[in-house]
Amino acid sequence: MLEYMAKRGYPDITPRNDYEMSHLSCGNYKPQKHGDFYTWVERELLIDAQLFCPEDIERGKEIALSRSTRLFEKPARISGFKPMPGDDEDVHIRPIPNSEFSIRLFGKYMEDKRQYGLDFVRTSTGKSENSPFQYDLFTVPDPDVQTAGPMMGPRSGRLFSVESGLGLKPSEIHPGAEKFILFEGACCLLKRKGHRDVYFKVPVRVRPKAPFKYDADILEFQATVVAPE
């Protein structure tokens, strides 16, 4: 995740170690203010070294570098970073009928939370655009799952973008930044005035089968086949 943030913010800079990567991923470097990156980051490393071990600067540098390495060993817990151009890992794009736009689902770095991000991209360019048309987006019950009654079944609900949930007005959202967060397996319905509804289901990632967690004998029942009415 931190590598992704560094590359996104500074695509023309190649960090030489984790210390430089950490400064880039946090957005600490400002080219117009700090000048050449490598000259600036060497000064930062010297300052940190003097703080960590003033009696031995080289030892202080080692401490600063090792602290940055430990930072990269921590698992990422951030959702919603959009893919960069050329990054098609766990990215799914489907064109919307009778529209110049497509629905894009992206799931990199969101595996542990079992989530996907969603945005709208112009089909011809692949570029994300904020609310490019009038629509409503809903979660709906899975049509393939039968339940005993309405109290047992999943409920429908309207979805709002992350930015809208934070209280931002459409004019305050950075161009192309708008996104939704959905869980794996969610069934969704896109409604547009004057058009047929569009249904889609968020993919479920294939994972290794978890070991059976109960120390118990197992009874299996055969499902009854119900004839169509």
TrEMBL record:
Top-level taxonomic group: Eukaryota
Protein name per Swiss-Prot or TrEMBL: Uncharacterized protein
